[in-house]
Design a protein that fits this description.
This protein is α+β, with helices and mostly antiparallel strands. The protein contains eight helices and six strands; from the N terminus they run αβαβββααβααβαα. Strand 3 and strand 4 form a beta hairpin. The longest helix has 40 residues. The chain is globular and about 80 Å long.
Length: 229
Amino acid sequence: MGDVAHIIIFFAALAAVVAVLIYRFYTASKRRDELALLAMKMGCEFHINDPFNIAMLYDGFDCISCGHDREASNVIVGRVDNRDFKAFDYSYKTSSGKSEAVHRLSAIVLDTDVAFPGLLIRLESVFDRLAGAIGFDDIDFESDEFSRRFYVKSDDKKFAYDVIHEKMMEFLMADPRWGVQMLLRSVMVYTGSTFTVEEFSAGIEFLREFMGLLPDYLWQTLRGSGRSR
């Protein structure tokens, strides 16, 4: 292959890299603009960069506690039913040998005035089934369908049963893409991937309805136990 051919290949490869970078910049800019517009329509604040250090503030939540170089962006801050929420994009890196991978997702977290026992609710995976086969089982419920579809883990099994009553099971099964984690004084919802702009609105509404289904007696119990602050 001659020098001219090598030069052509080099510039073709360079052009492809530049095109990818331009496309990524365009899509990232377009997403920021769309989320800023969504925040404005909802009467919320919008921050391109994370002013709260979300990776540390909510450290311990499964979906944002992995890897390194963890950071949030495109942060929407508002209130729903008199509680503060933060909705955001999130990224972290994992390394294996000389290779490095970037993982991206979105989440919404709602802050409350009580501290919860830890509770995780998400769709059951193949790995969960394999773990169950060797004795690492999750919490089962009277509904076989719910127990087959969802993985539930909690520090307090009674709390899990109080949260996941019959109507809550129906609600979760109606839109099973959402994972929910309750930890300390916050509740987080996520899907494991980056939200569309529409999913931010849907996730906030899902979180509002989820909180509305928590029984009054449960709030009274948590506050009476000294978990409120």
